[in-house]
Amino acid sequence: MIIKINAQETFEGDGVVVNRLFPVAQQRNFDPFVLWDHFNIATDQGFPDHPHRGFEAITYMLDGGMHHQDDLGNDSFVSKGGAQVFCAGRGIVHSEMPSGKSPSVGIQLWVNLPKKLKKIDPSYQEALAKDLPVTTFQSGSYRTIVGAGSMIKLQTSITYQHFHLAKNGYYQLSIDQSLYAVIYILQGSLVVGEHQLDATQALLINSKKQQDFLIEARVDSEFMFCSGEPHQEPIYQHGPYID
């Protein structure tokens, strides 16, 4: 199954406009992924203190920087190419506010916790750009946020990467059997198999067997890729909680 979708503009936090893939009316989640927000936060906006439970969250910075504080005592800042990660577990309260004079742009991805781990203690990790491995190939590169070589460790096994692909360049992407995957276009224009994708469009892929996709760039492009095995458990999603 392959679904092509458009991100929808949504208001979140303290006046922040995000491009959201899910949850929206047409796509509530994509097990094990339960939220995908492409945000652009002005310096006078942000996400003041608010609670979460039942999932893990990755805030990956594409530009600018983000200041994270939580009730565990963590107080940290990451900038372009870095990531802030928390496991909400049984409950955490945190804030994410932009730092600097320019907008803060990034992706926030929520990954559901399996039922057996919903009540674990909350925790926090950060990784600066220098801590996340970059792999180069003939026509581009990718940074691994979660996966082989990354210092970030989650309770759910996923692969999460940020690709740069030069004009007329290509990359052969393989998705293993039984995985659910997301290909999201940050900027540019790509042809993925039989599908053309422009900025803020995505493919949601439910792979019943191993699938290989030739990804070709019509112009200099960037895209995000993530994949993971679904928990195949009911997802009770309400506001900041995933029960």
Distance between the termini: 27 Å
Give start-end ranges of low-pLDDT stretches.
none
**N-to-C series of helices and strands:** EEEEEEEEEEEEEEEEEEEEEEEE
Q: Helix content range of the residues, please?
A: under 10%
Largest sheet, in brief, is:
7 strands, antiparallel
DSSP E strands, number:
24
Spatial ordering of strands, largest sheet:
1-20-17-22-15-14-13
Could you please describe the fold and organization of this structure?
This protein is mainly beta and 243 residues long. It is 0% helix and 59% strand. The chain contains no helices and 24 strands. It has strands at 2-6, 8-12, 16-22, 33-41, 47-52, 55-63, 65-70, 75-79, 83-87, 92-98, 104-112, 123-127, 134-137, 140-146, 158-165, 170-175, 180-187, 189-192, 195-198, 201-206, 211-217, 221-228, 237-238, 241-242. A seven-stranded antiparallel β-sheet has the order 1-20-17-22-15-14-13, with no helix packed on it. A seven-stranded antiparallel β-sheet has the order 2-3-4-11-6-9-12, with no helix packed on it. A hairpin with a 3-residue loop joins strand 2 and strand 3 (16-22). It is globular. The two termini are 27 Å apart. The mean pLDDT is 95.
